[in-house]
Amino acid sequence: MSRYFYYNVVLVSLLNLMLFVPYMLMQYRYNGAILSMLCAAVVGTTLALLYTRVMRKFPGRGLPEILSLYLPKWLSVPFLLFCAFMWLTAASISMYAFSVLINRFFNPDTSSIIVLVFMALVCLYSATRSTLTVMFVVEVGLMVCAPVILFLLFKAVRSQMLDWDAIRTVAHYWNRTPRIEPFAAALFVFTGYMNFFMFNRLFSPNFRLRYRWILPIFCGLILITTFIVPIGFHGTEGVADYLYVWSVTSDTLIMSYGFIERVIFVFLLLYLMLSLIFATIGWHMAMEMVKACLPKPKTDIDPARTPRSNWVIVGVFAALTVAYGYFFDEKQNLRFTSQWIVARAYGEILSVLFIFALSLFGSGKKKKLVSHETTSTNAAGADGA
Fold this sequence. Notes:
The chain is mainly α. Helix content is 74%, strand content 0%. Helix 2 (21-27) packs antiparallel against helix 9, helix 5 (73-105) crosses helix 6 (112-127) and helix 5 packs across helix 14 (308-327). The chain crosses the membrane at residues 5-26, 32-54, 75-98, 110-127, 134-154, 183-202, 214-233, 263-287, 308-328, 340-361.
């Protein structure tokens, strides 16, 4: 079961290449990006390890169930709605950005809104599936995409076109003071563990997460690759001219493998799948948190039939996403996304610390609930006997 945890970490860390994380890092390449990435690696690793330790105390429980142990409904609902908004925004931003990329590189004659509508319809169906099904979708998608993406990243690092002098020039600015914007952008690479605010429902009480030392190594390597490869291909100054810098970077790669001569087409198709999977997770997480705010919420990781509420809630998400793509242009989306990434960093740190504080100072109420559940289980067993 440990692999499902790492699937989410790998998914989010790889997806950052096609979002605005590289762009934000490049804007601060002379003004604190390197130390900001180092600080983000330390903070992200610490939060991930702290979070995994805390969630081990709540096997089989998602965030709504954990909050119900310690907080009244009127306190837990605003926190759940805030988390739902953050995951909904992450999914919608990634879908909008990728609809623009598909429109620009594959079919410029088609409106990006049409592409966004089709992507929203796909995610509308997939996000309404059960939590267990969504996790299986993540597994299958990564088994297909991740090996090819990692191979392409390896080829990019080993390319003869990579200018290491440009990379060394930027590396000389390693001692500049860290800034909050590149720190927040780099921290996003380490944030895949946050998906287990809901997917923790799938894990049994005897679950043990092994090989946690992989987290800083893998995410750190992806973060370094995200930063240095575009600089090596486009130079210290030219790298700041591109919004979707990794799309242009992949277009500079040429493979002598027949139909994979231009890497950008394979690269975008792979990231289209990852973007849809990421949006599916985001909408599904937001849906489950909204459902937990309703009266008499039901927790079922694999229901026999899809509840009608799933279609209604995710349908609203799809409509909001299409409306966002219609009323906002790329510049407005970039400005909003940059602000959202900073807000998400604050929200991530405070959320993990908040759950950690609840686990420390709310042990009495938890023991009372566990005792009540044990009594109920024993009573049910006696009735069955």
